Amino acid sequence: MKLQAPAKINIYLKVLGKRSDGYHELLTLMVPVGLFDEVVIEKTGQGISFRAPGCGCNGRSNLAYKAAELFLKETGVREGVSIRIGKNIPLGAGLGGGSSDASTVLAGMNELFQTRISRRELMKMAGRIGSDCPFFIMGKPCLMGGRGDVPLHNVVLEPRSYLIITPPLEISTAKVYSQLKCPLTRGRKSFKIINEVVQKEIVPEQWLENDLEGPAFGICPELKRVKAELLDAGALGVIMSGSGSSVLGVFQNEEHICNGLSRIRRHEGYRYVPTTSLTGGSHGDYRGKGVSGQG
User: Fold this and answer.
1) Which residue in 8, 14, 66, 140 is the catalytic one?
2) Is residue 293 part of a domain?
3) I need a surface site. Which of 24, 31, 55, 111 has the fewest CB within 10 A?
4) In this predicted model, what pLDDT tens digit does every residue of 120-165 receive, in sequence order?
5) Has 73 been annotated as catalytic?
6) How many domains in the chain?
């Protein structure tokens, strides 16, 4: 079974406060995009065979391995599984590649072993692996709360193209949060935002806000330069995704993004990925038409 595990972008991310469990309460608008890791899952006699070259961590420390381990434990399936991951989503870039791989393994094993676990139960299982994992079980734009693991409302976006620029560096999420001055709880603003999502189609460039940008730019000042370059290239708006290091520009359409690419000075080791949002379906069944590639 060959599956596609998509990257995600955050076009809105507010940190509402510190939780009693040590995590932060978030309100974030997450969007899956047409940049994929490839996940191949096959039945084996027993145990877990796992290969993920380029993942940065193999074996038991990898989220996809943990997903397979949890699935076998919770379902009681006695057969084994072979998992191979071909990495294309950059590591430590705020694009959720590891979480997407893990969720894709859960959904794929559910289909492979015909265990018929509901999507809601798969999301609960995914939440035990990582905060972003439940989002990837859904596979479509959504406003998320909690640690980023609680779906609040599906989101309809106006069509746009996105240019994702990823410098050749990783930013520690823990370090970014440690530099964040935790705000007071913004309960009223949260309700206002949820109400706006419910009532109308979202214009992406009007929502671009990320509380983690300031701390991340302080750690890696070159990200601020990347943001300026995207604006100079004609982007409608620019935002850092998640805790970085990817920065994305919003463009009107494919023609607009191609024009922007022609105006950007390329830096050695950077990745330039033009893409679009995906609109539905899990583990590879996407209806969005992407234009992703490496610049």
Assistant:
1) 8
2) no
3) 111
4) 999 999 999 999 999 999 999 999 999 999 999 999 999 999 999 9
5) no
6) 1
